[in-house]
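Here is one chain, start to finish.
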Amino acid sequence: MPRQSTSLQRLVFAGDHHNGSLAVVAPMFLKRRGRYHPTTLCGATGVGKSLLLRGFVSNYRHHYPPASVYVRTAADFARDYADALDTNSLAEFRNRTRNIDFFALDDVHQIKNKKTAQEELCRTLDQLVESRTHVLLSIMSPLGQSRLLPGLLGRLEGGLVVPVHPPDMSVRSRLLQQCAETHRVELAADLVDWLHANILTVGSTFREIEHCVQQVRQVMRPDGTVNIADVRELLEPILRLEVPIAKIQSTVAQAFQFRTKDLISASRQRGITQARGVAMYLSRKLTKQSFKQIGSEFGNRDHSTVMHACRKITEQIAGNQQLGATVEHLIEELSPISHHLTADDGWEN
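Its structure:
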């Protein structure tokens, strides 16, 4: 995200009741030594985990200028470790990653297929915890589906796991207006309402909001104003895109580690039933298909079965933070609008 938006994003987090736990966590990283080991920021792509992680590190450096800090992505950590093994410089690598005051590792999910790097990270975390070094990590949610080694997953779950959620409606409104001011774009009230109703839906991330403003800026007039008709002409083709139900089924099946045919089958196994319900819920949310049409794609189930599944998943999302995070991530992965607003950005999470 552009530099001028970084402080804005942290400000918005502070005012969002969905992210209230961040206000509790922030002061911990102003203390000289660590307390919870480790602290893991957990959330879907685009909610601002990387900016928060680097913001906490920056604040710590500001308060303790002589402090020794290690801040890298997990992929960089894995590469550095492999290089150390190849060049016989493991002692130097471990000195850089362990004899420090603050250890911050971004995107831990990047090393889910790198067993030796995960094992080294486990050993590193053990030493950092013993020395009361600040440890701050970020990972895509949910932890239970991260496919990390049990030893590493256990260390993360044994520390403080802090969920990071997309902004709520009031925060999205503030962020939209403030991003528009940053880009010198005037947004009339009717345009703001249209964007909220059609583009910035529940689950929209900071990144999508920023990209939305950049899209609107393309049709900005010389005086800085924007005509709602021009924005509609630009963005309505995206709104007409629809996700195939088969794509929803395969994506959900993969996320829950089942086969697509399991979701269509008559199986009433608890895990399959929940995954099937999520797929039905997303089919209703992301397509214009009726309950009856959706049911026909799930083994010819009737419309009342689909309605019941959608209601049940809605209730479960409200009471199950991990399931809610999974559904948010799936919506972002499947949504045509999300793909359009975040394509080829190269920004950090």
